[in-house]
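Risk mitigation, structural track. In case the binding assays with adenosine monophosphate fail to produce interpretable data, a predicted complex structure has been prepared as a fallback.
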Amino acid sequence: MNPLADALVTPLTSREDTILIRHDATEISGVELYLLTGQIANVLQNHGVEPGHRVAMQTEKTVEALALYLACLRTGAVFLPLNTAYTPTEMEYFIDNAKPTVVVCDPKSEANLSKFTNLNGIKLLTLDSVGKGSLNEEILTAETTFTNVARSPEDLAAILYTSGTTGRSKGAMLSHDNLLSNADSLCEVWRFTPNDVLLHSLPIFHVHGLFVAINVLLRAQGKIIFLPKFSVDQIIEFLPKATSMMGVPTFYTRLLSDVRFTKNLTKHMRLFVSGSAPLLSETHRAFETRTGHRILERYGMTETTMNTSNPYDGERRAGTVGFPLPGVEARVTDEKTGAILKSNEIGILEVRGPNVFKGYWRMPEKTKTEFRDDGFFITGDIAQIDSEGYVAIVGRAKDLIISGGYNIYPKEIEIKIDALENVMESAVIGAPHPDFGEAVIAVVVCVEGKTTTAEKVQTALQVDLANFKCPKAVFFLNELPRNTMGKVQKNGLRNQFEKTFQKNQ
Ligand code: MCA
Ligand code: AMP
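Fallback model:
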């Protein structure tokens, strides 16, 4: 038994039909994908990958990258996908923390990463944006037959890093059962069948693009239009061939700003799903007015995959994330006392169910503080559950910015800014942004008598931090506003700077 390989990969053996349609209109059948996963599984084993070993990947979105994920499932390895925007400094942290046996990267990163992987005895393979590189060379000579390694439902299938309020990234350990139970629930509640064709333009290094979109379509035995990244032109080109689409709110606001996105273009579509960030009620309404479709909003986290969803048949209520998925329990508690609150009261959202992760990689103490004794995971989101059971996310207790669907923890950026020359301290906040939902802005206090400039701060940060984390604007103050306890008042800063930021966009 190998729960995920049995459920997602083995069925490919009977799929002579197309499973993946690429942006250049070339097609891959299920059987072709299956054989590729066998070749990659053999390559991984040849490099010493054993069950439980980590295999890290930082590459562009290609069929080979997707097959690498599936090959990891077959070998019993733990898949570790990493955002292509991560810098060598960030990559070094992840590799050092996860200690993978194999890392697969873009040839452009090879020189930088090899310094570190060579020192640590890690095998580095390459894969570029058209599927070429040293991994591909080894695939060409590898056997296609591979016997899946046995795994139990509790065994790890993946580790996904997520930042934290301390600025240190933590690896969320997801088991076969976490991922399979979630894929099964989503297939059921969103009614995915073999007739579905999903328009896929999300990255495959996060839960949304990989474990929601890919796992669900593989489980349902549907087809995937596999686009390298989100582009309005490509979405408009491929929409007529799709039945369904999943995206972050930025996808939908960008589509709405294009006149070619019409009721006629979308009339055959079955489902549009949104998640990873709050969908504004006005976007929900504008989408319905334009297309006649109500977007189905759902809510999840890296640690839990999907928790709640608006109903397929019932009312998809704007401003809410719907009901807990089958088998998932949700409750709202008082942040300070932990007491369970009644309907409509606002507090911290806690969840429990087969989707909830196994803990943070090599951080047992941190894991303990995020769970209640009865097994509920404390999400850090502020929510309200109404008398009908609809969950609404009304805020965040965690200091987190979500920009274009990517999570950014201010602490990580503040630590970097505070270390810059002439800077005394800083506060990083999220400001409303018409495209990304929220944008990162920094407020900096210089050492008395010294100065720096916004450009200097932004340029310095780009060396170590992924581009999407770098502040889109930097403002200066003589001191940060603090309360009597000495805590920086970020709400005050947001009120002070968001208008100036918006005016300058
Ligand atoms: C790109 N940039 C960004 C972002 N993306 N800045 C802030 N936030 C972002 N999300 C930078 C670029 O590097 C560039 O910088 C500038 O902004 C303009 O880029 P643009 O060309 O407009 O961006 P893009 O390449 O079109 O990308 C935007 C995007 C992309 C399509 C919205 O960010 C994206 O695919 N987001 C989806 C993220 C996602 O999958 N989230 C799910 C994770 P410069 O000008 O300096 O070059 S959360 C999850 O999985 C949970 C469990 C859940 O609930 O789903
Ligand atoms: P991540 O751990 O990067 O996957 O991000 C998870 C966080 O994204 C959650 O804790 C929420 O704060 C946020 N999130 C995801 N989906 C939604 C949604 N539909 N509405 C509001 N926030 C969301």
